[in-house]
Amino acid sequence: MLWSRTADADVLGVYARACDENHPVACYDEAPKQLVSEVRMPYMDEKGVKYEDSEYQREGAAEIVMMVEPLGKRRETRVQDNHKGDTWAENRAYIAEEMYSKATKITVFMDTLSSHRKYNLYNVFEPQRARAILNKIEFVYTPKHGSCGLTLQNVNSAFCQGKP
């Protein structure tokens, strides 16, 4: 995607909008997380020192999906099996039909992953439903080092580390 000063100005214009429950501005990002389990259980000695082995067993992977509305002070996290196009489409439906069901329009900032394609909605839903979701969401694609993506990466990192 070619990025220009015009696109930067468009993004900044969206950031400058006031909080509006009828037209919320939300950020969307996802991050893979490896799932592991202990091979040997940690133990504590008589002095209270905890011993943990660094050996682990792989238990697969999960995708942590984060949706944040900074001005509305709202954050939702979903844990899913993958970040394929069908999952992306289901998340768009969740945003439009459940998270912001009363909104007339939703602006969603997100990156340009190959799975983030509007046609995926038509692969998952009937054409009328896919069109209704697309009509309700305004997609804004962030630059590679966009602040929305960084905000979500920081929130996602804190979440993965067990911080509130």
In short:
The chain is α/β, with parallel strands linked by helices and 164 residues long.
Explain the overall architecture.
With 164 residues, the protein is an alpha/beta fold. The protein has a single domain, classed as Nucleotidyltransferase, domain 5 (2-Layer Sandwich). It has five helices and seven strands; from the N terminus they run αβββββαβααβα. It has helices at 5-15, 85-99, 119-124, 127-136, 147-160; strands at residues 25-38, 43-44, 50-51, 56-69, 74-80, 106-110, 137-141. Strands 5-4-1-6-7 form a five-stranded mixed β-sheet, with helices on both faces. A hairpin with a 4-residue loop joins strand 4 and strand 5. The chain is elongated. The model is unreliable at 156-160 (pLDDT under 50).
Spatial strand order of the main sheet? 5-4-1-6-7
- Average pLDDT score: 81
Q: How many distinct folded domains?
A: 1
Beta-strand content estimate? 25-35%
| Count of individual beta strands | 7
Architecture in CATH?
Answer: 2-Layer Sandwich
What's the N-to-C terminus distance? Answer: 35 Å
Q: What does the main sheet amount to? A: 5 strands, mixed
Per CATH, the class reads: Alpha Beta
Order of H and E elements: HEEEEEHEHHEH
| Overall geometry | elongated
In the CATH hierarchy, the third-tier topology is known as Nucleotidyltransferase, domain 5
Number of helices: 5
Rounded to an integer in angstroms, the radius of gyration calculated over CA atoms is 19 Å
Helix content: 25-40%
Briefly note the structural class of the backbone. Answer: alpha/beta
Regions with little confidence, pLDDT below 50 for 5+ residues: 156-160
